[in-house]
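Ticket #254: bound-state structure for nicotinamide-adenine-dinucleotide.
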Amino acid sequence: MKHDIFSLKGKVCIVTGGYQGIGEVVAGYIADAGADIVIFDLADASEVAQKISEEHGVRAAAFKCDVTDPESVKKCIEQAAEKMGTLDLLFNNAGICLHKPALECVPTDWYKVIDVNLNGVYHVAHAFGKYLVDHNKKGNIVNTASMSATIVNIPQRQASYNASKAGVVHLTKSLAVEWVDYGIRVNCISPGYIRTALTEKTNPEYQKAWIESIPYGRMGTPEELAGAVIYLLSDASTYTSGSDLIIDGCFTIV
Ligand SMILES: NC(=O)c1ccc[n+]([C@@H]2O[C@H](COP(=O)([O-])OP(=O)(O)OC[C@H]3O[C@@H](n4cnc5c(N)ncnc54)[C@H](O)[C@@H]3O)[C@@H](O)[C@H]2O)c1
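RESOLUTION: The complex was predicted; output attached.
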């Protein structure tokens, strides 16, 4: 390729929820595209960071961070910037899911899902955006939403998750417009059913029903999301902001 528009060389990228699943796998691909990696997770991801560093020849670090706690997020952004010298990119991906009918949910069930999936995405985007603006830097954010922002999944009941992800899509669009003048692009990906710990532990009957409704006839893999994230983080997408890239094996279009 004459112009390596997908390259992330020389950039530092934060990946939230990078201890496992989509975050862990996509972090490896982002490193393969040349970026240094900083993982923020509730769990200790230092071994993941070390493995990424050894495999891809980039710098990598891990910080224990609770995305629901704005003070924890702010501190981690400051420490990451100091350790890595700069911050350029954010894959804002940490999330949880609760399969529970709305009528059976107590307020704390609802608060927990909204707190991680929507407030958490906001806290990290906010602290990262502020870092960029304060340092007069441009940057890119990719949030992980879900096809559940667009459709209502069955047979499981998960109103809190669906509402939180719809919030992530509209937050993405809103920040994209607010931050145009700062040169900060904000996009999101909306995966369909992806085989990770989050889906593995769900009722096998649900999994069977999902696969029967996916035109591809299978769940996706975290690897199949990596190209989209790199595209949105890189100079291959300089005129793209506020978009929601649905990656679902055709689930939402039938
Ligand atoms: N797997 C799917 O089918 C699917 C589909 C659509 C969207 N998503 C979204 O993709 C993202 C990743 O999902 P996954 O399947 O890899 O899940 P996962 O459970 O395998 O990984 C989630 C990671 O987020 C971390 N995390 C959870 N709460 C946190 C908090 N408060 N602070 C910091 N880190 C926290 C966990 O420790 C874990 O490492 C989530 O936002 C999820 O909603 C997943």
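RESOLUTION NOTES: The mean pLDDT is 98.
TICKET STATUS: resolved
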